[in-house]
């Protein structure tokens, strides 16, 4: 934000002035220490690391595994990566839209009942991430135990690629949003919502 409220004809709030001076006095090293002491932020980072690791395994090594170990030709095995990435785009869009829609529904319900919205939007996103993580592990299990030399069903492999991409990229998108919200609230010394 470039302007202060007084620059556009509004009155300044006293609490915001105190917060601005507190944030200006806080150094970069203090902010880093504050962020590293947050177990919630560190758990988001750890979850993001493992989901990125799974994304790398799916997108980089699966084609080689299908080609060398299972015996599927290179042309068909690269479809796995293509489907993974294409459905990952849809997964990212869907997860963001779904989390925003859930928060919108919760806010509008509380407004209809003449109540303040006291929900925690980050908790709704966390629930969606946990559902996505459970789905990722289910489809990783399917890939690990149902794709072998003896039973090669190419449509099953493609279905696993599509759903896994959808879930992995959706999870990455929501974890990124949650990390940014967490950082904002940690640095501004507010309670995480």
Question: Mind sketching the topology for me?
Answer:
Elements (H helix, E strand, L loop, with lengths): L13 H12 L2 H9 L2 H32 L3 H39 L8 H26 L7 H34 L6
What this model shows, in words?
The protein has 193 residues and is mostly helical. It has one domain (39-187). Helix content is 79%, strand content 0%. The chain has 6 helices and no strands. The longest helix has 39 residues, at 74-112. The radius of gyration is 22 Å and the shape is elongated. The two termini are 21 Å apart. The model has no long low-confidence stretch (mean pLDDT 82).
N-to-C series of helices and strands: HHHHHH
Count of DSSP strands? 0
Percent of residues in helical segments? over 70%
SS field, number of helical segments: 6
Shape: elongated
Radius of gyration: 22 Å
What structural class is derived from the secondary structure elements? Answer: mainly alpha
Beta-strand share of residues:
under 5%
Low-confidence parts:
none
Distance between the termini: 21 Å
Mean pLDDT comes to: 82
Major β-sheet annotation? none
Whole-number count of domains: 1
């Amino acid at each position: 934000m470039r302007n202060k409220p007084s620059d556009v004809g509004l009155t300044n709030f006293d609490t915001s002035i105190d917060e601005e001076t507190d944030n200006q006095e806080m150094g970069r090293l203090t902010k880093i220490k504050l962020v590293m002491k947050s177990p919630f932020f560190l758990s988001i980072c750890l979850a993001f690391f493992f989901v990125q690791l799974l994304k790398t395994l799916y997108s980089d090594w699966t084609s080689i595994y299908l080609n060398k170990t299972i015996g599927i030709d290179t042309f068909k095995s690269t479809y796995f990566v293509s489907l993974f990435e294409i459905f990952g785009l849809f997964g990212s869009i869907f997860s963001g839209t779904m989390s925003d829609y859930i928060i919108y529904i919760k806010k509008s319900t509380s407004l209809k009942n003449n109540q303040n919205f006291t929900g925690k939007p980050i908790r709704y996103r966390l629930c969606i991430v946990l559902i996505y993580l459970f789905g990722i592990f289910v489809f990783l299990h399917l890939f690990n135990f149902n794709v072998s030399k003896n039973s090669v069903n190419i449509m099953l492999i493609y279905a696993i690629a599509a759903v896994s991409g959808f879930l992995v990229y959706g999870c990455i998108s929501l974890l990124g949003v949650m990390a940014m919200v967490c950082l904002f609230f940690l640095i501004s010394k507010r309670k995480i919502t």
